[in-house]
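Forwarding the complex inputs:
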Amino acid sequence: MSDWPLWEVFVRAKGGLAHRHVGSVHAPDAELALRHARDTYTRRQEGVSLWVVASAAIIASDPDQSGELFEPAADKVYRHPTFYDIPDVVKHI
Amino acid sequence: MPSLPPIRPEDEAVAEKVRLHGAFDAPAELPHDPARTEYLLRLGDDALILGQRLSEWCGHAPSVEVDLSLANLSLDLIGQATLFLGEAGDADQLAFKRDVLDFRNCWLVEQPNGDFARTMVRHLLFSTWQHLLYQRLSASTDPAIAGIAAKGAKEIAYHRELAAEWVVRLGDGTEESRARTLDGLGWCWRFVPELFEVDEQLADAIARGIAADPREIEPEWRSSIGAVLGEATLEVPADTRPILGGRRGHHSEHLGHLLAIMQYLPRTYPDANW
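Prediction (whole assembly, two chains):
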């Protein structure tokens, strides 16, 4: 419905993994948002846990500020851990 | 007139195998246990007809999220129907090539959707009953029925919760949503007594432990529905003269129309594939 607020949906695919943002649903309140999220995003066994967050509660960065916020990191390659030898047994870093 | 020779066992074995399959309107081979078959048809037809009814919302629901919710409910029910009817015989034959008088579903499930409020009230009344019934049926002496019911109970638990959430919001919502919910309740309440009816066929299946006795779940059903309606700030309607007969093939005018749509394709193009 057009007057229903928007909710962001996060799905945990498997135990041990983080919840990932998958999309959004409209719903009149939090409980129904959770049900709509279940019916919309986990119909094909996509997840074992769900979060919904009122979209209005998300504080987003201002795209107009992307220069000052993100560009300064571009020339600081030394912040990446690329100057170390990673042991073969370490898979996820 | 000479008497016929006795039938040899080897001939009888062959004779069993040459029954016609797929003949138009010929019911599939039914196992020779009428009470069990009858019960499977009641369970299967309830799920099938309500599943078909809910599928009518597809593309018409108030929002895309609700559209998906209703389609999910419908698919759960059609899945249960496939399993129950598959135990009674050939599920496709039974669903698509039986005529209206041979259907054994209750009146509640064949009622037209009306508006969203009526659909949700119907679903609350029915899925609460179905959930309590399936929970007991998971201890049925018939392993097939017990298995289908145990799987279905998880699906229906969700149906029951979702329907309750909506009825509470609609009943305790705007003036209009409340009026529509009351209308839906008024429409559906006449068909409640049939859910708890025990006729001779059912009594037989109950006695053998195949079926659950619906009279045993009635107090819990009434208190559960009463609690949801209370939260929805609605009163439980007064009981009226019961409308019975669906279990014996006496249906409202609505079922024939539903079947005409559901059965059109397989009857027009028999054995069509895709």
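The beta strands of chain A are 6-12, 20-26, 49-54.
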